[in-house]
Design brief:
Elements: H1 2-11, H2 20-38, H3 44-65, H4 70-75, H5 81-93, H6 99-119, H7 129-140, H8 146-159, H9 161-165, H10 171-177, H11 185-206, H12 209-220, H13 222-230, H14 233-250
Length: about 250
C-alpha cells in the first residue's frame, strides 16, 4: 500500500490542476493513507520510506495548489485537519534516531509552510494567525528539543526574525545559553546564523546602515561578548568553534 501511494505520486501529473477534481480527491486520500500507516510502520527501512514518500506528497500538494482550486486551498490550509496531522507527524519524528527520517521531516515541515503560503497568497505572512501560533508553540518548547531549532529556522524565512523577536527579545541570549552543551551547539549556531542573517537583511532593506548597525550589534554581538568574558570554559569553547566564525562572516 505504501509503495502504491508512492507510485501514484510519481506517475501522475499534479501541476496546474491537470488531474481535475478527482485528482484532488486522490491526493487527499493518499495523505490520509500515509498518515494512518505512520503509526504502524516502525521498522527502520519502512519508517524511512514513509518519511520520503510523505515529503514527495507535500511537493505534489504544492504543485496541485498552483491550480488555484478553492476546495484544495481549504483542505490544505494551515488550520485544516490534514496540516494538523502532518504537524503531529513532524513533532513525533523530528528527533528520530535515523538521520534520513530527520532530514525528510525537516523537508516535510518546510513544504508544509509553503503549502500554507499558497493557500493564503496575497495576505501578510508576518501577521498570519497560523504562522503566529506555530512560532508561539515552538518558542514554548524547551531549548533541549533539537527539532525546535530547525523548525524555527524554517519559520524565520516565512515571518522574519524581527517578528519573532517582538515576542521575546531575549531569544538570542537563551540560545547562547544552551551552547555549553556540545550536542546542542551546532543546532543553536545554525539557528542563530539564520536569525541574524535575516535580521541584517531586514534592516538593510529598510534603513541606512548608520541608523541600524548599533541596534543589530546590541542584539547579536553584545550578548556574545558578555559570554566570552564571563561564560564557563565549555560554553566559550563551543561558541568560538561553532558560532563566532559565522557571526564574523556576516559582520
Amino acid at each position: 500500500l505504501l509503495f502504491l501511494c508512492h507510485g501514484a505520486l510519481a506517475m501522475l501529473e499534479w501541476k496546474n490542476g491537470s488531474m481535475g477534481e478527482n485528482g484532488e480527491k486522490l491526493l487527499l486520500n493518499i495523505v490520509s493513507v500515509l498518515l494512518s500507516l505512520s503509526s504502524e510502520l516502525k521498522e527502520s527501512s519502512m519508517a524511512t520510506s514513509l518519511s520520503r514518500i510523505l515529503a514527495v506528497w507535500t511537493s505534489s500538494a504544492i504543485a496541485a495548489l498552483a491550480s488555484g482550486s478553492l476546495d484544495l486551498k481549504i483542505k490544505l490550509n494551515g488550520n485544516s485537519d490534514i496540516i494538523g496531522k502532518l504537524l503531529e507527524y513532524i513533532y513525533t519524528h523530528w528527533e528520530h534516531p535515523l538521520d534520513a527520517v530527520r532530514h525528510q521531516t525537516k523537508l516535510i515541515f518546510k513544504n508544509l509552510l509553503q503549502m500554507h503560503q499558497a493557500t493564503v497568497a496575497g495576505s501578510s505572512e508576518k501577521s498570519d494567525p497560523f504562522f503566529a501560533r506555530l512560532v508561539k508553540r515552538l518558542l514554548s518548547l524547551e531549548w533541549h528539543v533539537k527539532g525546535k531549532y530547525t523548525s524555527l529556522g524554517c519559520l524565520v524565512e516565512c515571518v522574519g526574525t524581527e517578528n519573532i523577536l517582538q515576542l521575546d527579545r531575549t531569544i538570542p541570549i537563551q540560545i547562547l545559553d544552551v551552547m555549553n552543551d556540545q550536542s546542542l551547539a551546532p543546532y543553536a549556531s545554525d539557528l542563530l546564523e539564520t536569525m541574524f542573517t535575516n535580521h541584517k537583511a531586514h534592516f538593510t532593506l529598510r534603513f541606512q546602515e548608520s541608523t541600524w548597525i548599533d541596534k543589530w550589534h546590541d542584539i547579536w554581538v553584545s550578548p556574545l561578548l558578555v559570554i566570552l568574558c564571563e561564560g564557563n570554559h565549555d560554553q566559550t569553547t563551543y561558541i568560538i568553534d561553532y558560532y563566532l566564525p559565522k557571526l564574523l562572516k556576516c559582520s
